[in-house]
Amino acid sequence: MLHNEDSRVKIPAILHFKRLGYDYQSKKNAKIDGRNNIFVDIFKESIKRINDKDFSNAFLDDLINEIATLTDNTKDRGQSFFERLVGFHSVKLIDLKSPTNNDFRIVSELTFKGEREEFRPDITILVNGIPLGFVEAKKPNNNKGIQAEISRMKYRLETEDFIPFFNQFQLLGFTNNMPYNDGSQVQTRGSYYTTPNWEKTTYNNFREEQEIPVNEFLDDVFINMVLNDNQIMSIKETPEFETNLKPDTYANKFITSFFSKERFIFFIRYGIVYVDSPRDGLQKHIIRYPQYFAIQELVRKMDNGLKRGVVWHTQGSGKTALSYFISNVLRDYFQKKNVITKFYFVVDRLDLLNQASTEFSSRGMTIASIDSKEDFRKNIKSPVIVPPTSQEGRYVETMNVVNIQKFSEDSQVDLDVDKDIQRIYFLDEVHRGYKLKGTFLANLLGADPNGIYIGLTGTPILKENFKTTDLFNDYIHKYYYNKSIADGYTLKIKKENIATHFRNDVRNILNIEEGEKIPSKDWELVTKESVFVNKLCEYIQDDFKVFRDDVHKDKTLGFMIVSSSSDQARAIQEWFETNSSLKTALVLYDEDDNKDKQEEFRGKRNKEMGNKVESKLDGVIVFNMLLTGFDAPRLKRLYLLRQIKEHSLLQTLARVNRPYKNTKFGYVVDFVDITEEYEETNRRYLEELRADIVEDDGADIEEMFVDVEKVKEKIQVIENKLFAYMGNIEGNLEAFQIQIQPLNEEQLREMKSVLVEYRECYNELRMSHEDVSNIPIERINKAYYEVSNRINLKVAERILENPNSDIRDITEIDFTQLIVEFLKIGEVDLEFTTENDILEKVNKIRNAFSANNDQSDDAFNGLQNRFKEIIRSLRDEGDTTQKVHEIMTKLDALLQDILVLNAQNNGLTSRYHGDDSYMRIHKKIIKRYDENLNDIMVFQIMSEIISEMDNLIGHMHQPTEKVVFHQMKKPVKNAFKKQGFTLSLRQVEEVIYLFLDDKFKKD
């Protein structure tokens, strides 16, 4: 019986698409345009139907050519095609207003073939015959989990052959039919969606909030047709197939959520945006699922008369992007009612006005910045919606960005608004100065009672005398830390205490008793004195260097110091400038160049260094600025020198909660004991959220904050898992090594993971200056080494036992432990040789293999196969002195042959001035044409081609593989012709590809 990914996930998923109204399209006898894999007949019929016009075949062929032209470029990441797909045109490609009017089909294993390479998604989604998406469906517990698909996608997106296809794709799904592993930072199981964004492609969870009813029935004739077309009829009557066909499997529920017809069109129409960022260049983003459900709730509540509401989405969840998505949805919502919309984004700081303006303009909106009462009065009275700067005659949505920071509380703005225009106000960070009485906002609410007011916050105000919802009536949607952390959008935050020796030093400096507290007003005075600042800064400097260099080993990490006063901030900055190698910037309201300092600290990506983040600054020193709205993912350590209250505390803590590389937490070094304030604030939020939390959803909702006690609890769990082994780990590692011998590879990997967690907890406690003397870290490290060796042994055995194992794995496997094991159990007289002699010889062979610079060569692969057979014979026969002696002789001969091959390669490389890529090309040409050409002739051919190609590339601003390919045809043909050998066109192209594989790094 078949029991693979096809039978378990792919075929049931294909059949489930039928439940959603998709048709199944066989590839047999289908007319497909290979440039974009458009199904020609379906396309032509669909275009006629959705446009209600009988176009000629010639016109429709031109339309297919237009799509091919729009997608065949390496510069715009598919933006031209996307705008053609969703923009206004006299001939539409999809019906955005009536999703069910489109033709939806799925195809199994459709090949997308470029000039040289190809790929086949499991399920391709056609809309009106155009491939606009696909699903990769993998079996549960597949090797490397969903990461295997992410790696495969990375290669596809780097392959120039595939650019036209990914310029055309909009919605992609990946599933291995398993629940999410929310406790892990690395996505290995579950179902994820994305849109192609090349090297910046991200993979998003989708957690359903509005169940879509699905009819479970499937026609038996249809099932038979699909099974027969995929040649998999044998699975039909099996109980496994019946189970996997249910609509509520993890894979099928994801397909329902993301690929239902209405949602598919919604995501294309409203959920995709091109972002032209000054820092990251042109990017293609897709809406996050909480943003989607926030919009759905907003529309539903507006249908019921909502005028004011709050979107409570945690920091880092993309509230500015959400405002952009909402503006497009509401524009069309009111357009159906023949009402014009005008959008305002209200902030209360100049830096946030600049930041918001950049965010909206990078998404293609025009910006009207309003920074005074008079400007606002004129704007709100004006009936003008779109400035005259619309791009190329196309409608461009305008966002009026309003800074009310300088609007006094008693300001009265005379707002006689135009009643024919629906004004929609996004109020950013409504946990701050928006109060019901005596403010600009109150005047606005009174002057424009018809307006729609959407508050945005991650931390609503929940005071006894005032709550955010007192002003905004109701929550539109909530997305709290627990879900954001589970979805990977934000990190947990770990609070670390300061070292005891520093506490004692401070008590002596300030002359205070144990347990005595300093009033906040006195704290501000004494903590800016030089004697305190010196001690504090020395401590922070040493602490951060240990954190960055010893624990995380990442020079790109940064820190922030939140001072207790502006004077203290200046004193700290002066100390770092004078005494420290760490570079810091002072960001205060009255300092110059604050914007430049913020951008410098955020860092810039160096494309030549693999997009590594670079910054001249290690840290920033602040008082009140940057505690909200400042987004710098590299900021991972926060030194808190003053008490911050209520929602402002959570805002401040969130500065370090952005995901960055492989960091597990954001870190807060707590000088003022924020625990009580945090717990009280979080308690209020939990009460406010309680109505939305179901039992299984809220189990870990208090886990945003990780403190020392939680780490200690985790160590207890770990020690319990290791209980049966800890005696030997601490007392006898040889006995521990014997104890783990019966474990299989999976059990060993699990133990290795637990030991890694133990080491991480040790580091966390050490950074919190806790006593770690009772943790036997050296013994834990040695146990980790023993387990790693045992895993290497198991992997080596698995590779040797599998006749189909990739021979390239052989030289990457450490056979040391395997050889030691074999020699231990055999009857070998080690007088003629020692264990180390054999290991040394094997290591010499591995090093010689690694030194070879043509590892695709048949001769090299043959030597690797010999090595595999020798190691296997050592395992099978290496139990007597004579047999080991024979194996040693074989190893000597193998080493000699590898060294000879390497010497030949190096000699040929020297003829090409040390460029080993030309050595490899030389050998491949000789192999293909050895009957007609010798080494001297090939060298002369190569020299001429190299000269022509270097000259061509040297005169091109941005050489691409495609351009070089076409330009080199004639020079290659001529170079061979001079040696009396004429190549066919196919042979010319094959030779050019040999060079392009090197120039464009295609192995």
From TrEMBL:
Transmembrane segments: none annotated. Gene3D superfamilies: 3.90.1570.50, P-loop containing nucleotide triphosphate hydrolases. One of its GO terms (biological process) is DNA restriction-modification system. GO terms for molecular function: ATP binding; DNA binding; type I site-specific deoxyribonuclease activity. Signal peptide: none annotated. It catalyses: Endonucleolytic cleavage of DNA to give random double-stranded fragments with terminal 5'-phosphates, ATP is simultaneously hydrolyzed. Keywords: ATP-binding, DNA-binding, Endonuclease, Hydrolase, Nuclease, Nucleotide-binding, Restriction system. It comes from the Bacteria. Its EC number is 3.1.21.3. Residues 283-494 form the Helicase ATP-binding domain. Pfam families: HSDR_N, SWI2_SNF2, T1R_D3-like. InterPro entries: Helicase_ATP-bd, HsdR_RecA-like_helicase_dom_2, P-loop_NTPase, Restrct_endonuc_type1_HsdR_N, SWI2_SNF2, Type-I_R_enzyme_R_subunit. SUPFAM superfamilies: P-loop containing nucleoside triphosphate hydrolases. Belongs to the HsdR family. This is type I site-specific deoxyribonuclease.
